[in-house]
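Please go through this protein, sequence plus structure tokens, and consider how the sequence yields the tokens. Keep your notes short.
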Amino acid sequence: MTYILYYSLAVIPVFLDSKSQKYNYNKILLFISYLFLWFFAAFRYDVGSDYFSYIRMYNKIGSRGISWALSSVRTEPLYAIFNWIIYNVFENHNLVFVLSSTILLSLIFSVIIKNKNKLSVGLSLFLFVTTFYLSMFTFIRLSISAGIIFYSYEYLVNRNPVKYFFLIILAIGFHFTAIVMLPVYFIVDKRLKFFVLKFLFVLIFVAAALMLFTFFVDIIGGFLGYEYAHRVGNIRGGINQLILFSPIFIFIFIFRKRLILYNSKNIIYTQIFWLGSILMLFTLWLGILDRMAVYFQFSIILLIPQIFKVMNNKEKIIFPYLIVLYFLLRFSYSIFGNMSLIPYENIIF
């Protein structure tokens, strides 16, 4: 109930914002939405499965130093620096959650606002809240990295390699999995026929790489015994995430052509989404790929709201309700499927 209340308070002002014609009023409503989401995430207590792990990491990095963190490969370099500064300057572990929430939400709101002429800000925020927001309570480093990647989409569209690769390197500094975004600049292509060829190549390459990976894992697991095999089993895939993802794929596939006609940027955004779909497909074999897929899945924050703009009158009878219902169910699944999120506690009250 707490989650529903807070999220309603965060999203409703932005929906009102879309009805307002006064610029200053718009800014106030957006700020209110930002403030609710920020407060809810920044001042949480023992919410998220790795909450105390991040506090332990903060204390170790702060007391033992950045060189220890890097030499022992305990965490990524920029996240180590981030913790070291907080420990030695502010001496307050709560700032890990406050500042990480500030960084991610600022990046998300910035990208959505930049695209507000082509989409509903309220719908975009609704998608972020129901799909990705809860994960930032557990995956702090990954969330910061994903926020930076999301911001870098603009430079894929504008073909600005300097800014794009700078942001990717920055994202890698917070989570090594962001390295998967390095070749994306050379894969996405406004010339669709060339993208299709590159897409097929990526599909074949990923399939071959995963077959080799699972082959060697089975061999090594056989030599090292049950304990190792059990740990390896934790990174093997399953069908749950694929089932959860499939409705989004269907929605975007149905409206793909109209999305591109409506907004030329969607040529790149849809290509990012298709690449992420490859990774989601292969989570059947390797579950940890869903962490890499999140960098691509953020594209739905921009794509799904634009579907509402390209629907015809008949489609508007059913599709908006199906889409909203799906994301509400997904939101419920995220809460009740992760008991570390319940109950919600706050350090202030």
User: Anything to note?
Assistant: Confidence is low (pLDDT under 50) at residues 219-237. The CA atoms of residues 308 and 320 lie 7 Å apart.
